[in-house]
Design brief:
Elements lengths: L1 E5 L8 E3 L2 H12 L18 E5 L6 E7 L2 E6 L4 E5 L4 H10 L5 H12 L1
Antiparallel strand pairs: 1-2, 1-3, 3-4, 4-5, 5-6
Helix pairs in contact: 2-3
Length: 116
């Protein structure tokens, strides 16, 4: 399972792998999240846009985006569901995993985004 920190516009984003056990725990946490309010979606635009999870996170899942208090799960068949990440707890947990894979400047930028 790969996690891309969608941090930059026009530059290569940092990517790191998640161990199988951590990936299973991540999927358990995602499956326990409630549906987000109608119209909720991850933030768009320039700069930090969240964490993008790919590489077989679960059967039938193409991509998961964790950002701004929501988790968007896009299925391989084109379906999508948006879940609520209260207090950005899941996003913060993934950012903690990412810390070992980032430069000090990237880590500082990510922390600023999560605190702001």
């Amino acid at each position: 399972m790969d996690i891309e920190i969608d941090l930059y516009s026009g530059r290569r984003n940092p990517v790191f792998g998640l161990a199988p056990e951590a990936g299973e725990e991540l999927m358990r946490r995602i499956s326990a999240l409630p549906a987000a309010p109608p119209g909720s979606a991850p933030p768009q635009g320039l700069g930090y846009r969240g964490l993008r999870i790919t590489g077989g996170p679960a059967d039938g899942v193409e991509e998961i985006v964790v950002s701004g208090g929501v988790v968007a799960v896009r299925d391989r068949d084109g379906g999508q569901r948006v879940l609520q990440d209260a207090g950005r707890a899941l996003e913060r947990s993934l950012a903690a995993h990412a810390a070992a894979h980032l430069s000090p400047a990237e880590l500082s930028l990510l922390r600023q985004e999560l605190e702001g």
